[in-house]
Amino acid sequence: MTSAFDNAMKQLTQIAPFLGKEYARGMKFLKTPQRIIKGKVLGYQAFRVQYNNARGPYKGGIRFHPNVSLDEVKALSFWMTVKCAVVGIPYGGAKGGIAVDPSKLSSVELKKLTYTYANFITPYVGPWVDVPAPDVNTDGQIMAWLLEAYEKKVGYQAPATFTGKPTELGGSQGRTEATGYGGVVVLKEYIKNLKLKTKNLTIAVQGFGNVGYWFAKIAQKEGFKVVAVSNSKGGIYNPKGLDIDKLTPDFKSNITNEELLALPVDILVPAALENAITKDNADRVRARVVFEMANGPTTPEADEILAKRKIDVIPDVLTNAGGVTVSYFEWVQNLNGYYWEKEEVLKKEEKIMIKAFNDIYKTTLEKKVTYRKAAFILAIKRIIDAMILRGRV
């Protein structure tokens, strides 16, 4: 199996020639996480990796999935460090998870596991230390349980310790759709720069969880034609377009996930897990652009194949950063005890996402590089600049 962390380090190494010699020590520093927390929680492997905090408190999701491993969590924590720097929010990067299939647990068992994991990470998290959030197979309820267990342990209220909470417990308006919404904002900017019309541009979305659903729903509302979506069991394809609002989670499949990746569409959106597009299937992609809404869905080898075929890849560290951006807003609101309406939240998110895209687009033109390399050049420079100012390197 392809190592996600090896892929992440290849992405880091590839941009070294674009940074000056004064950044070499910082690049070396960024090849290792600052802290790895690992152990067993009720018999399941559990992790929290805190990658870098030069730009602010560690920030990153918690996932419950059978394939969670230290390699994966290290990679995701590195990408979170980059992602926060890409959109310019004052966070470092972290990630956590438990190697478990939550669908096989009862609600009581899931709550107990969550509480135990909260106790496991409590010494290492806090509003100014590390701020976890939902990720694969975790949601607002999981965040509520984590918060309750954490506050019991520390003995005081600290809602800013976790984001992605229900609004009743200090969650932000707009957080549920934030990642999908931010992705569509970036897609519209990309399309605008190409001077294309959104109407009838076709989209296929691999992964129909929270991110994939909201991306598809909002894209459809903006005039794009969503012709295919898929979940872990398979996909549904209709070249005339799907009605996202009428799709139920148990839709009847008529294509496989692999077939979806090869559909003749304008925009292919991998929105599931890592390593969806590899050197083995990249030559079958027929889309005009690959728009990454999952974390790490395209391997470096696949990136090279797609670049040679003149297929743009708009990278995850930009496209799905809307979620962490609104998590940042939630944190700010919690710290101030003051809350914004959804329209204000989404407007603030849109402003940040548009600026981030245009910064990256400008770098692609100046450096004559891909969108991913441009994003990494900007982000890694910002991270190492912070480390230099702190005297770490």
Give a quick set of tags describing it:
11 strands; Rossmann fold; 393 residues; alpha/beta; 13 helices; six-stranded mixed beta sheet
Helix content: 40-55%
Q: What is the strand tally?
A: 11
CATH architecture of the largest domain: 3-Layer(aba) Sandwich
Query: Could you state the oligomeric state of the chains shown?
Result: single chain
CATH topology of the largest domain: Rossmann fold
Assign the CATH superfamily of the largest domain: NAD(P)-binding Rossmann-like Domain
Walkthrough of the structure:
There is one protein chain. With 393 residues, the protein is of the alpha/beta class. It has two domains: 32-169, 3-Layer(aba) Sandwich (Rossmann fold), CATH 3.40.50.10860; 172-393, Rossmann fold, CATH 3.40.50.720. The protein has 13 helices and eleven strands. It has helices at residues 4-14, 24-29, 70-86, 107-121, 140-154, 178-193, 210-221, 257-261, 300-308, 316-319, 322-336, 342-367, 371-390; strands spanning 35-41, 44-52, 58-64, 93-98, 130-134, 202-206, 225-231, 234-237, 267-270, 289-291, 312-314. The protein has a six-stranded mixed β-sheet. It has a five-stranded mixed β-sheet with strand order 1-2-4-3-5, with helices on both faces. α1 (4-14) packs parallel to α3, α3 (70-86) packs across α13 (371-390) and α4 (107-121) packs across α5 (140-154). The chain is globular, with a radius of gyration of 20 Å. The chain starts with a helix and ends with a helix. The mean pLDDT is 95.
